[in-house]
């Protein structure tokens, strides 16, 4: 439920309401607006009634949040949320700050996996030169087969940190388990939770406890409601910097690796204030389809693009078939800028 405070209500009234909510058994999430303060009271609402909450001093009205996800909902926060990644004193101050959720559309690029120092540095410089805003590569890889390349683990994180030093690009990398969260959080400007872990509730909760922003990918068989409830696990832990990413879903089709659900982008943007990214690389799994679907993602309102780029895709240890070469990426960036401009955005 949303408690809307009267204009001119005092800080003491808000603090009192927060205490009262905790006593009742609900968790307050306070949003201090310019004109009004509102508190989202989340938890099992059977512990109270709207009348009881309306009687708290300073409260003007109590509104229900009809969606099952609360903090992620547009009912609570009607306007898009913007936040920066990079440059946080808690993480690593040297990276450039990049804003997600605004009119600028950041491109997050890099190889699927960190394969080695020179591979990563080469691609980091190249994607930066082409206009990428952040570098993404996996050091911990979630692989279908235990015999496939599993990633360089902490050594990979060290190369990522070095690439950030060299280019200023903030780094995004996947964390696979709750136990790894402190280690990955020490290196990464933003933690990626991958499709296979979208409903790993312990991992979601662990990422809710850290300062690093989170890029949560859509589970390959998740409905939008399940997806937003997964984001809610991170938000309710107090980490408000969550962005979502459509990366294709499992269907009967086999001309693609995944079916890229483009309509999920405008649909999610109606339901949530969180930034929505698009990943046409995993979304198609086919290199020759990636440029068209990237252009389409920009056109349909994505707040960011995630794309796999490698100096030599044919030799990539993971996901080569969907990975662009540096030249292909440079060409695509130019095309996308023109589309962004046509819809009043920049890239
Ligand atoms: C990746 O980003 O390389 C990855 C493993 O993505 P997903 O979780 O979407 O499959
Ligand atoms: Mn990949």
Account of the 3D structure:
- The radius of gyration is 21 Å and the shape is elongated.
- The longest helix is centred in the C-terminal third of the chain and has 17 residues.
- The chain has 2 domains: 62 residues, Phospho-2-dehydro-3-deoxyheptonate aldolase, domain 1 (Alpha-Beta Plaits); 260 residues, Aldolase class I (TIM Barrel, Alpha-Beta Barrel).
- It is built from 11 helices and 14 strands.
- The two termini are 37 Å apart.
- Helix 6 links the parallel strand 10 and strand 11.
- The chain has an 8-stranded parallel beta barrel with strand order 7-8-9-10-11-12-13-14, surrounded by 7 helices. A 4-stranded antiparallel sheet has the order 2-3-1-4.
- With 347 residues, the chain is of the alpha/beta class.
- The protein binds phosphoenolpyruvate and manganese (II) ion.
- Phosphoenolpyruvate binds next to loops.
Could you name the key traits of this structure?
single chain, 347 residues, alpha/beta, Alpha-Beta Plaits, TIM Barrel, 2 domains, 8-stranded parallel β-barrel, 4-stranded antiparallel β-sheet, 14 strands, binds phosphoenolpyruvate, binds manganese (II) ion
């Amino acid at each position: 439920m949303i408690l809307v405070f009267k204009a001119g209500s005092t800080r003491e009234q808000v603090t009192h309401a927060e205490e009262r909510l905790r006593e009742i058994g609900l968790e307050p999430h306070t949003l201090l607006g310019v004109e009004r303060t509102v508190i989202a009271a989340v938890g099992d609402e059977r512990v109270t009634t709207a009348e009881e909450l309306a009687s708290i001093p300073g409260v003007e009205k109590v509104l229900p949040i009809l969606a099952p996800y609360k903090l992620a909902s547009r009912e609570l926060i009607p306007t898009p949320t913007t936040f920066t990644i990079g440059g946080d004193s808690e993480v690593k101050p040297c990276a450039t700050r990049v804003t997600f959720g605004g009119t600028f559309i950041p491109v997050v690029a890099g190889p699927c996996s960190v394969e080695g120092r020179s591979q990563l540095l080469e691609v980091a410089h190249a994607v930066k030169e082409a206009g990428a805003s952040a570098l993404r590569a996996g050091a911990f890889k979630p692989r279908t087969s235990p015999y496939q390349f599993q990633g360089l683990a902490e050594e990979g994180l060290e190369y990522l940190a070095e690439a950030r030093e060299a280019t200023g690009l903030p780094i995004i990398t996947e964390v696979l388990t709750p136990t790894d969260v402190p280690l990955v959080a020490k290196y990464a400007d933003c933690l990626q939770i991958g499709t296979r872990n979208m409903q790993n509730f312990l991992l979601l909760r662990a990422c809710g406890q850290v300062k690093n922003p989170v890029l949560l990918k859509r589970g390959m068989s998740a409905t939008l409601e399940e997806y937003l409830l997964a984001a809610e696990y991170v938000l309710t832990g107090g980490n408000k910097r969550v962005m979502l990413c459509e990366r294709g879903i499992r269907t009967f089709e086999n001309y693609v690796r995944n079916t890229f659900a483009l309509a999920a982008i405008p649909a999610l943007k109606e339901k949530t204030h969180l930034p929505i990214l698009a990943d046409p690389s995993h979304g198609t799994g086919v290199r020759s389809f990636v440029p068209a679907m990237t252009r389409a993602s920009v056109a349909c309102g994505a707040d960011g693009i995630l794309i796999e780029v490698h100096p030599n895709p044919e030799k990539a240890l993971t996901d080569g078939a969907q990975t662009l070469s540096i030249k292909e990426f440079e060409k695509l960036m130019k095309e996308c800028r023109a589309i962004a401009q046509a819809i009043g955005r920049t890239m």
